[in-house]
Specification:
globular, five-stranded mixed β-barrel, seven-stranded mixed β-sheet, single chain
């Protein structure tokens, strides 16, 4: 796979994001932030991971506001300006965003691994009580598509997944491999919500996932990684990057 294959899939935020300063992230899904007027609010943090390097006190963060008056938390944490190896940059932390990016890219007919597919259904049951993110279908037959969000960078330019133990993701890899062994097709799409030059699995953080990832690739599961351009107005899948994980 050649590095840096240029593609552009943009997801603009529905309304301007609001800047705040991070006070603390806790209980995985909560973050206390200070708004520009000095008030402190609790925002929803749609990220179950460790968020290594992304939750430093005082970091600039960008929030989206909910239009649902019944929602308990009015704010959602979308981006953080993180001091990463290679320099500071905006990073997307909302793990729900990558699925929207993939669906949008498919609708535009610019998701190369699924060229020729005519439908993309979300959340389809398969495997051992799992749901695949998407099931693509068309003249060439179905393809199970799993999407992973990536936002870990410990070496300049190298994105890694996962940032903590990811038993569910490891199970997904084995189930995608079983699809291939049963004569089907499956695809893993890693959406890196930051600038990056390459992708690797973080085997030191989760050896079990790393082993499952390698087993899946050996079985014939297709794997693609895409780096994003991330900013206050939109998140854009900017380019395909190489996966450097060895056998």
């Amino acid at each position: 796979m050649a590095a840096h294959v240029r593609v552009v899939h943009a997801m603009r935020f529905a309304a301007p994001l609001t800047e705040a300063r991070l006070l603390r992230r806790y209980k995985r899904f909560l973050a206390d932030v200070r708004l520009a007027d000095g008030s402190v609010v609790t925002a929803h943090c749609a990220n179950p991971g460790a968020m290594l390097g992304l939750a430093a006190e005082g970091s600039r963060v960008l929030l989206s506001a909910s239009t649902n008056p019944a929602r308990k938390l009015a704010w959602s944490w979308e981006l953080v300006e993180a001091d990463l190896p290679g320099g500071p940059q905006w990073v997307g932390i909302n793990t729900a965003r990558p699925n929207h990016l993939v669906a949008e890219a498919f609708r535009e007919g610019r998701l190369a691994p699924l060229a020729g597919a005519t439908s993309l259904r979300p959340e389809v049951a398969y495997g051992r009580a799992s749901r695949v993110d998407f099931l693509a279908d068309g003249p060439a037959g179905p393809c199970h598509v799993e999407v992973k969000n990536c936002h870990l960078m410990r070496r300049a330019g190298l994105a890694e997944f996962p940032d903590c133990k990811a038993a569910r993701s490891a199970r997904h890899m084995d189930e995608l491999a079983e699809v291939v062994r049963s004569g089907g097709r499956s695809l893993l799409v890693v959406v890196v919500q930051m600038r990056a030059d390459a992708f690797d699995v973080a085997g030191d953080l989760d050896p079990t996932f790393a082993a499952a990832f390698r087993r899946a690739r050996a079985a014939g599961v297709e794997t693609r990684a895409y780096a994003c351009r991330v900013g206050p107005e939109e998140v854009t899948i900017a380019e395909e990057i190489p996966i450097v994980t060895g056998p």
